[in-house]
Amino acid sequence: MSQDRLTLHDLLPPDELATAIDAGHVTRKAHPELPLSIYTYTRVCQYERVWNRITVRCRGLVADDVTGEVVALPLPKFFNVGEHESGQPYAPALPDEPFEVYDKLDGSLAVVFHYADRWRVASKGSFVSEQARWAQRRLDGADTSALVPGVTYLAEILYPENRIVVDYGQRRDLVLLAAFGGDGTEVPLAEAATGWDGIGSVVRAWPAMPLAELLRLTGSNTLPGGGRATGMDAEGFVLRFASGVRAKAKLAEYVRLHKVLTGVTERDVWRGHGIQRFAGVSAKRLAQGLGLPLSELSGLRSQGGRPLDALLEQVPDEFDAWVRGLIEGLEKSFAERERAIDEAYASLAHLADDRGAFARAVRELPDRDVRAAVFQRLDGRSTELLTWRRIRPAAADPFKNDEEN
Q1: Which of 180, 110, 120 is nearest to 150 (CA)?
Q2: Which of 41, 72, 103 is the last residue of a domain?
Q3: Phi/psi at 236 (nearest 5 deg)?
Q4: Is 132 part of any domain?
Q5: Are 228 and 272 contained in the same domain?
Q6: Which residues pair with 101 in a beta bridge?
Q7: pTM for the predicted model, two decimal places
Q8: How far apart are CA 182 and CA 53, in angstroms?
Q9: Distance in angstroms between the alpha carbons of the first and the last residue of the chain
Q10: Which site in 16, 72, 159, 178 is 20 to 30 Å from 57, CA atoms measured?
């Protein structure tokens, strides 16, 4: 092992790393064939904002299990400008020094490194993810002769099937973002780019500008030069200060869309459609039926009462189709259950004048939900809200998962 290469213990105190892993803030995943492990912060870490000198470095960090040598050194986790300006403990004030401005790309991170006589790729958290396998195939078919062993190259993986929010069309690319030498020193981007020509493109740089101007652009969804951008056109910018510190500034519309696409679940669609579907039901009954606080439902109704319609304004076609497909499935299940109640009640209607006999007959029905519903029919009450509650989806993943953001 060369003396100028970092070891895992040089970079991360062993006791602190072990504590982070035990607490579920960092995962360690083994390579399926090689004596390598990749260290990555977890969703729990992100959610709880447990950012410290261990977690910020574990963003696809690869180490040799035998020698302890750091084989791949990714960019540390960096934060939004707003987090620095609001005094978050993990995001100190940004340095008062010049900074460069680059595109913030909306894909997956590729960690490119040389090991055992071959150039290899991991994504932020895996050696074998779909994104890592796609990038490995591209790398295997490219001319890597000018890459420097011992340097870690960081790139953005872009291809249509890996779309998050921004629509890059049919672009398939490994976009070089940064590079680090084995001793942890950042390699100038222009220098690293000389070996990247046959592999992919290099991230676009924008003219230098004051920070206040850059933030005005993101707030108004504008690109340098005055061009307008939606969240499907661009994500935002990365600032790299002279000392190497990085921060990001995202377009306001991208932030909105990202929240929608990565935060909306099947249950959210069920609830939103239910609010619109049962617009004539009293607020108290509907709030109980949908499991919503009455104040939240009242607030939605005061804003027009059509949260799903508002959600579907200016979203990608794929998301719109997903939502409408869910609604179609919910309505089909609803109709089937209501039909089952209709048939069950029709079979018992001749007993309606004898509640005791009716109850005894109901006990013979095989479906518990139908048994509860036919008593509502007997009392002349609608079963629709009860049926809608019965088809509530289980908690599910959102439309999109975005491990990078």
Answers
A1: 180
A2: 72
A3: 155, -145
A4: yes
A5: no
A6: 206, 239
A7: 0.84
A8: 19
A9: 35
A10: 159
